[in-house]
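Side project, low priority. Logging it here so it doesn't get lost.
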Amino acid sequence: MGKARDKAVSITAPKRYVRCSTDVCLPAEAYTSTVAIGVRCKDTFHPLGTGTLFQADTGPVCVTAAHVVKQAQLGPGELCIRAKGSQLFAIQNNEIGEDDSHILLAPEPLDVAVIPLPRIVVDVLGKRALLHSSHVTADKGPSKGVYCLLGYPAHASGNSISIEDQTESVPLHFITYGYGGTTQGLGSYHQRFHLLLAWSPPHTRGRSKIHKEAASISQEVFVNFPEGLSGMSGCSVWKLASHRDCPDTASMGSQRIVALQTGLYPESRIVKATKWTVVLALLNGGIGDPV
């Protein structure tokens, strides 16, 4: 649910699946800060996307895709986040506004939302559950680097979760590479604000060579594209290495968040992500008209 799809010309033949895994290849804070976003209807939580807990100057926030928030507001349910430990937190103020007490939305086509969090989230989860500016770096792109999307695809969580269910969901990794090909026909793409990511599904379903030390504890899930990535809208995008040919050059913990996933070009097998610098600009007072 909640996956924004942009129109695109067909550049390559679409593939039927992508490989996600539970490899431990990111800083510990990447996992504690990754939450599912959705709505609570009576005794059921319906996930719509993925968010990232972040410590802004004005207080704790959750960063996600704007279309996830808009979809949540279409129904009667209560906007919530489901955090590490299967804990559910209601968003007290789910109104869109222009100050830090309301949900902030970046102008289209940036597709970014910043949700102010109730203080109880930090009280319960602890300050270490949030990312800080030190976890962020700028990525000019296009790049030949290796990137990791971290979120909750629908395959992992299902369409609904009982609030009594204490089973802890584990965010999954989706390894991609910087896309530097033609952008002709990629609707709503803006080079200044977006990163484009692609991947080459392996001919065999062997383990990824990235972070081989985590292979013994890794669980891999193969999901259909694009439907299988539903639920990862708004998830964090981390840069693992600067060059595709050297994915192991980045040491564990040295990775930085560079963007959040905001769209797909299914026919071209390309993922669109909005740069995290847009988030910082939104928190600091606005972006202006990106068009």
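Brief comment: The first strand starts at residue 17 and ends at 21.
Revisit when time allows.
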